[in-house]
Design a protein that fits this description.
The complex is a heterodimer.
Chain A: H1 2-11, H2 14-28, E1 51-53, H3 68-72, E2 78-84, E3 90-98, H4 107-111, E4 117-119, E5 134-135, H5 137-146, H6 148-159
Antiparallel strand pairs in A: 1-4, 2-3, 3-5
Chain B: E1 4-9, E2 12-17, H1 22-28, E3 52-55, E4 62-63, E5 73-76, H2 80-95, H3 111-119, E6 142-144, H4 154-161, E7 168-171, E8 178-181, H5 194-198, E9 204-206, E10 219-224, E11 233-239, E12 242-248, H6 261-265, E13 280-283, E14 286-289, H7 292-310, E15 315-319, H8 325-338, E16 343-344, E17 376-380, H9 384-387, H10 389-401, E18 405-410, E19 422-425, H11 428-437, H12 440-451, E20 455-459, H13 461-465, H14 469-483, E21 486-489, H15 496-501, H16 524-527, E22 532-536, H17 540-543, H18 547-556, E23 559-564, H19 569-574, E24 577-580, E25 589-592, E26 598-601, H20 614-624, H21 635-651, H22 653-668, H23 670-676, E27 686-691, H24 705-714, E28 719-721, H25 723-728, E29 736-741, E30 744-749, E31 751-752, E32 760-764, H26 768-771, E33 779-784
Parallel strand pairs in B: 1-5, 15-16, 15-22, 17-18, 17-20, 18-19, 20-21, 22-23, 23-24, 27-32, 28-31
Antiparallel strand pairs in B: 1-2, 3-4, 3-5, 6-9, 7-8, 10-11, 11-12, 13-14, 13-24, 25-26, 27-33, 28-32, 29-30, 29-33
Classes of the chains: A alpha+beta, B alpha/beta.
């Protein structure tokens, strides 16, 4: 009996139609492939991507060179030098993040008492030359200036959970 | 054992000295009680109330710092009552304290921050506005942020009890209390920097250090301060190869937990613009950078040429008394192996007559810590408070705690923070005269010394440097013998003892053995100009006693090598080759202090540019000169050789004994000796008396910006005369005068100062005017210039 059923299935291509049925079912289902980079998946407000340094609305940089991010960084990716600026405030002369060392843990953002260093949702960036992975202060500030609106929105959206 | 009482501390039964406070008992038994105002070196104030603890049978908690232990006392430091009291005090302290820890330099090493973690609550109940206080200007060393102050009054008590200057005080009461300087300006203590360490919060922080690093990222390396003969222990705090600050390292025998401002802030010179980082060669009047090999080859061949043409005794070497034992020894070794005995480190001295009879090293004669136990002290030619600030602080303690009678025989009436019981202010020659004839004043001083139990006679820099040094020294020793007082010298520089021991004197070899033929001393090597000079760590224009004579000899010389961390215009003028050597934070070495303590340290940061540690430069120079015995691998090797030589010399008992005999003979007959020697000064001539101001004392200090700012603030006059002389010459303060010395004429403005004795022109050394003058203790003429 078993042999007969087996022969029947073999000659009627039963297994093939069984497989094709699944193909047909997915053929009419909605597609989930994201056409990166034209399309992107949505990211969380807490996504930890490329870093940025923020400014206050009056244009003053937020960073006060407290070096807490440097101390909190488990990968020792942050290097800061500080000094007394001409107006007597505490400011950085050097703020560098080595993105090759960085493990994107977000501790720097958590340590910052003035919400200066943040991790944006930017995840696609590349370096062409050796040394470019070390983000300098001016570069980080420029990213902050460019994406301030998004950063502020993200921070506001996440504020009630902190 | 009767003075021990039984106390129960947190359930632990302990025995405590009667009369001690609960907090001391707790500290000694490993129980921590939180505190702000209590400090073991200061008196008890009990005003922060942080150390409240529960004592059995007491309804209310009591302050542990001000409650003496009693028999059977039961103390609970962590009971609910104590804990609640401490938490409540912390809440009050935090009411007015700003939340600016991220920008506060104390952040990370702040006692308030630490204790707030343990005793503070996470949310403040205080919603009202906080109090704000205007900052004070405390000069170039101390940065103030008075809003952070919690009124522990440690700084106030330090100023009164240790520094001896009631400069800081509290004004107002309650909410309106403020720490203030009585004169709202720089505080003129030479140990003021210590209040930075004392301040438990960030109200008083270091100004040169301001915002440059955080406490947790600094690397700590122990070292020895290179400025005075105490050899204060310091810690360098460096970040990525840059020294960010210097803090004291506890050493009860030397500096306790304090540090003089000079030791604390001189590190700023490390990054001075005048640092030289490559070997320099003068070719046809032009300076060019060269390789080390080329530089050393040129030096070796030039020295050999001079030796062949004129003999080795035409070469002379001058070493700074602030150089390390290793450096001094190697300079000495090069010179002696090369065949010249012309080496000296006594840059500021003018009288070398008694050098043969001196002990192997200048010594204080008692442990530094014993200075505070003295009952009577005679200072001869010493401004101890500014020459060795921490020794001065010890004397102040003796004055304050034992009511010590401090007496002085000085050529200037120095402002001491301790009161002088008796003083003789006279020109050096008159000081000698007074002591020789035993004037009534001297007799009363001797009587006071005789009556005291712990007594000492201390010879300071002015006595050692002046033209009558030999007489003053033997007379001082004579009085010490008469009265049973300890005789001590506080020598100039950090390592004068090392220089004596390593043979950086013309008449003794390394280890201290007398030489058959003495070379030329620091003065005569310029008076009898030599063909070639090796200058080690010396700014000739500022460091030597007779700059004009020295500069003249150097300009005439065929070849001058300067090994120096810094380069100055004058150095460019007289040198032919400049070798950059590492500074005190960049080299390893040893200093021997005035107690004969050897203190070895390692480098804290890498040497700048192509500078090399001095001992390495000298070692290789020895190789280039084809001298034997220059195969050292480390500064430790050099030190071991010096120690071996010193030990061998100690064993040469007979030689030492014979020297001692000669010494004793001299000591017993100082008066007869004086009659044999001639007193140089005639009474109608004016004598110049020069002092090296605290912040001009060596090449490092002179290049430290905060110290120089303080020096400028102090505005010490360059030349001052007594009112009597001013009247005689019809001069007024601020007048321009023409100063003539050894055919050198300088125009300078003059100050009239009642502290200057008659017949003395009191000059600051190590400045532009003194650099143009002659002998620091010679005769001088003053003439009014018509304006």
């Amino acid at each position: 009996m078993k042999r007969i059923i087996f022969l029947l299935k073999t000659f009627t291509l039963w297994e093939l139609f069984k497989g094709m049925r699944i193909t047909l079912r997915y053929f009419f289902k909605p597609k989930i492939t994201v056409q990166y980079p034209e399309e992107k998946t949505p990211t969380s407000n807490r996504f930890r991507g490329l870093h940025a340094l923020r400014r206050y609305p009056n244009g003053e940089e937020r960073c006060i060179a407290c070096k807490l991010c440097e101390a909190a960084c488990p990968a020792a990716a942050i290097t800061i030098d500080s000094e007394v600026r001409a107006d007597g405030t505490r400011r950085t002369t050097k703020y560098e993040i080595d993105l090759f060392k960085c493990i994107y843990c977000g501790f720097c953002e958590e340590a910052c008492p003035v919400d200066s260093i943040v991790e944006t949702t930017i995840q696609d960036y590349h370096f062409e030359k050796r040394g470019q992975q070390i983000m300098r202060k001016d570069e980080l500030l420029a990213i902050g200036d460019q994406y301030e609106k998004e950063i502020a929105k993200m921070k506001a959206a996440d504020a009630k959970f902190k | 054992m009767s003075d021990l009482v039984n106390v129960e501390l947190d359930g632990k039964k302990i025995k405590v000295v009667q009369g001690s406070m609960i907090i001391e008992a707790a500290d000694n038994n490993g129980v921590y009680i939180p505190r702000f105002c209590y400090h073991k070196k200061l008196t008890v104030a009990a005003n922060c109330r942080m150390c409240l603890v529960e004592v059995e049978k007491n309804k209310k908690p009591v302050p542990a710092c001000a409650t003496p232990v009693t028999e059977g006392m039961k103390v609970f430091t962590r009971s609910e009552l104590a804990r609640n009291a401490q938490k409540a005090v912390m809440e009050f302290l935090l009411i007015n304290h700003p939340l600016d820890c991220p920008i506060c330099d104390q952040g990370g090493e702040c006692e308030l921050q630490d204790l707030a973690m343990g005793f503070g609550s996470d949310v403040s109940r205080y919603k009202e506005s906080k109090r704000v206080i205007k900052d004070k200007n405390l000069g170039p060393f101390i940065n103030t942020e008075m809003t952070r102050c919690i009124y522990c009054t440690r700084c106030v008590r330090f100023a009164q009890e240790i520094a001896g200057l009631p400069e800081l005080g509290t004004m107002g009461r309650g909410e309106h209390t403020e720490i203030s300087t009585f004169v709202e300006q720089a505080i003129h203590s030479e140990i003021s920097g210590n209040i930075i360490d004392l301040c438990p919060v960030g109200a008083l922080t270091s100004k040169p250090f301001k915002f440059s690093a955080r406490a947790w990222e600094l690397q700590q390396r122990a070292a020895i301060a290179p400025h005075d003969c105490l050899g204060s222990n310091i810690n360098f705090h460096s970040l990525r190869g840059v020294v960010k600050r210097v803090v004291p390292k506890d050493n009860e025998a030397i500096n306790e937990m304090w540090l003089s401002d000079r030791d604390r802030f001189s590190y700023e010179a490390i990054n001075s613009e005048q640092r030289v980082t490559k070997p320099l060669l003068k070719r046809d009047g032009q300076w060019q950078e060269i390789d080390w090999t080329v530089a050393l080859e040129i030096i070796a061949s030039s020295f050999e040429n001079v030796k062949h043409a004129y003999g080795a005794e035409q070469i002379a070497a001058l070493v700074s008394p602030n150089s390390t034992v290793e450096e001094q020894f190697l300079v000495q070794k090069i010179m002696r192996k090369f065949g010249s005995n012309n080496i000296d480190h006594r840059l500021q001295q003018t009288d070398f007559r008694d050098q043969a009879s001196l002990a192997s090293t200048p010594q204080l004669g008692m442990p530094i810590a014993d200075l505070e136990n003295l009952d009577a002290v005679l200072l001869i030619g010493s401004d101890i408070q500014r020459e060795q600030p921490l020794a001065g602080a010890r004397l102040y303690k003796a004055f304050r705690n034992n009511a010590a009678k401090i007496m002085a025989i000085n050529p200037y009436d120095f402002d001491f923070n301790f009161g002088l019981h008796a003083k003789i202010i006279a020109a050096p020659a008159q000081m000698v005269e007074n002591l020789t004839i035993v004037s009534p004043q001297v007799q009363s001083i001797i009587d006071h010394l005789k009556q005291a139990k712990h007594k000492a006679i201390i010879l300071g820099a002015l006595a050692q440097n002046c033209a009558q040094a030999a007489e003053l020294r033997s007379l001082a020793q004579h009085i010490a013998n008469l009265t049973g007082a300890t005789f001590g010298e506080l020598s100039v520089g950090a390592n004068a003892a090392g220089a004596w021991l390593t043979g950086c004197v013309p008449h003794r070899s390394a280890g201290g053995a007398a030489l058959n033929q003495a070379g030329l001393d620091a003065n005569s090597m310029f008076a009898h100009a030599r063909r070639a000079y090796l200058l080690f760590n010396v700014d000739v224009e500022f460091d030597v006693a007779d700059p004009q004579q020295a500069l003249g000899a150097l300009k005439k010389a065929d070849f001058v090598v300067s090994c120096s961390p810094f380069v100055s215009d004058a150095m460019r003028e007289y040198s032919d080759v400049i070798l950059p050597i590492a500074l005190f934070a960049e080299t390893s070495g040893t200093f021997i202090n005035c107690n004969g303590t050897w203190q070895t340290f390692a480098g804290a940061i890498p040497a700048q540019g192509e500078t090399r540690p001095g001992w390495k430069v000298l070692r290789v120079l020895g190789n280039f000169l084809h001298l034997s015995g220059f195969e050292y691998n480390s500064s430790e090797d050099v030190k071991l050789e010096v120690q071996r030589l010193a030990r061998e010399e100690e064993q040469e008992e007979c030689q030492l004994a014979s020297r001692k005999q000669a010494y004793e003979r001299e000591k017993l007959d100082p008066v007869g000796r004086l009659k044999r020697s001639k007193l140089a000064t005639a009474s109608e001539e004016l004598t110049r008396v020069s002092y090296w101001p605290m912040y001009r004392s060596d090449n490092i200090v002179r290049r430290s910006q905060p110290l120089q700012e303080m020096f400028a603030l102090q505005a010490s006059p360059e030349i001052s005369i007594s009112p009597a002389l001013a009247e005689q010459l019809q001069l007024h303060a601020g007048d321009s005068v023409q100063i003539t010395q050894d055919n050198q004429q300088v125009i300078a403005s003059i100050q009239v100062d009642p502290k200057v004795p008659a017949g003395v022109v009191y000059c600051a050394a190590a400045n532009r005017i003194s650099a143009q003058l002659g002998n620091a203790f010679g005769t001088i003429q003053i003439k009014k210039v018509a304006t």
